[in-house]
């Protein structure tokens, strides 16, 4: 059985303890590889390798970083099929989705930040006749990048690429549930000629390997994407050490459909937004609010389309949805279905355990569920489920829906459907979210800031925000006047 290895100091190495964990394919329920159960000693080795590599990498001219990051992008693209299969086997998502969304986006992340390395410039602030200030933005040193399981390579590279482009060295940890693409990435980095120690990937559990990265005194910043509870714990650990923190956390995103929307676009995108990757995307719209005049028509059409989605073997070309990521997550989502019923919700479609025939008969499958009849305050509408379970509710006024939309602890993203330009801007301004999509969803320009407010996190990723995060500004004031 394949053994995944850590990537430390330019080499693929086993964990120092010799311990490995099982890696389960959620579509089959079977162990299909083993991953290092790394601990603080592996992290210490990785940090030492990063510290050693840092002076040369930080001093490299931008073109060096550009060339290597671009080469990494090319090599992932050239082997897209292996990466997509690894992602599907780890995560349970359809191979077609990994092939068309996740892996191409990881390629784009490296390309985008490769060119950013070439374009990044410092600011200057002249004080006429007296002095000139310029801001040196210097890399921080060794930084930690910790990513979740839902978009494994996409989110891992979204952190690593800007950190490297800005001249830092990285100790990264992917989720232990989805380690395989990070292992393939390590091999690609070796082939691309990334100098030893510039990127180190330590596999293992959050409370051991992840925690050791956060606690290590030489790690200057933590870029973390994951759950809000984990983010809170990481913040509490890192804050007394004055580390820079970027936390991209959970969401409970509203899809808001006004009666004057383009019906076809709104209903097809609401379905996509709710159930892409089985609802396991932080940006998925999980509370669908529809204005009264079109509520019934919209609900019935949405139910019709969602009932037609095919859940099954991720490797089958006709599967729209695959398995949930793990047994424990599958059980957690089922728990929320039970809660929704207890709270008085009516299941309009889905919510059934599915046992495909053949190799996937032991997999973690659940058909996509839409629930009606719950109020905005109930737990089902307040807590992040992160699965194929969404609610739908009718609203009357703009004011009412804004209250519901803003009425959770989260503030990551919203999508709004209306043809009224003034309303679109008005609602966007009042939504307490880091991202608002008007008449679209998941349309991303990598230059724009990305992230949430309230319990959805602090800091922003994307574009210059990411490069800025991974640099420390130093102002130099040069007096030339008398
Ligand atoms: P977790 O918070 O459980 O884990 C995220 C990562 O942190 C994993 O690599 C995990 O390791 C690691 N980790 C766990 N405990 C610690 C610790 N004490 N110190 C350091 N690292 C630790 O999240 P999930 O993997 O379950 O991902 C789902 C969550 O991610 C959802 O809440 C979702 O909303 C959020 N998310 C947010 C996004 C955003 O941009 N705002 C985007 C995508 C997802 P291990 O897996 O081994 O436990």
**What percent of residues are in strands?**
15-25%
Q: What's the level 1 CATH class of the largest domain?
A: Alpha Beta
Biggest sheet architecture? 7 strands, mixed
> What is the count of structural domains?
2
Count of distinct strands: 25
Mean pLDDT: 97
Kindly state the percentage of residues in helix: 40-55%
Give the cofactors and ligands.
Answer: NADPH dihydro-nicotinamide-adenine-dinucleotide phosphate
Question: What does this protein structure show overall?
Answer:
The protein is of the alpha/beta class. It folds into two domains: 2-249 and 456-477, Aldehyde Dehydrogenase, Chain A, domain 1, CATH 3.40.605.10; 253-445, Aldehyde Dehydrogenase, Chain A, domain 2 (3-Layer(aba) Sandwich), CATH 3.40.309.10. It has helices at 40-59, 62-78, 80-91, 95-119, 152-165, 180-192, 206-215, 228-238, 263-275, 295-307, 327-342, 379-382, 398-406, 421-430, 463-469; strands spanning 2-3, 6-8, 11-13, 20-25, 30-36, 124-127, 131-139, 142-146, 169-173, 199-201, 219-225, 244-248, 253-257, 285-291, 346-349, 353-354, 365-366, 369-372, 389-395, 410-411, 413-417, 435-438, 453-454, 457-458, 471-479. A seven-stranded mixed β-sheet has the order 15-18-19-14-13-21-22, with helices on both faces. It has a six-stranded mixed β-sheet with strand order 10-9-8-11-12-24, sandwiched between helices. α4 runs parallel beside α5 (152-165).
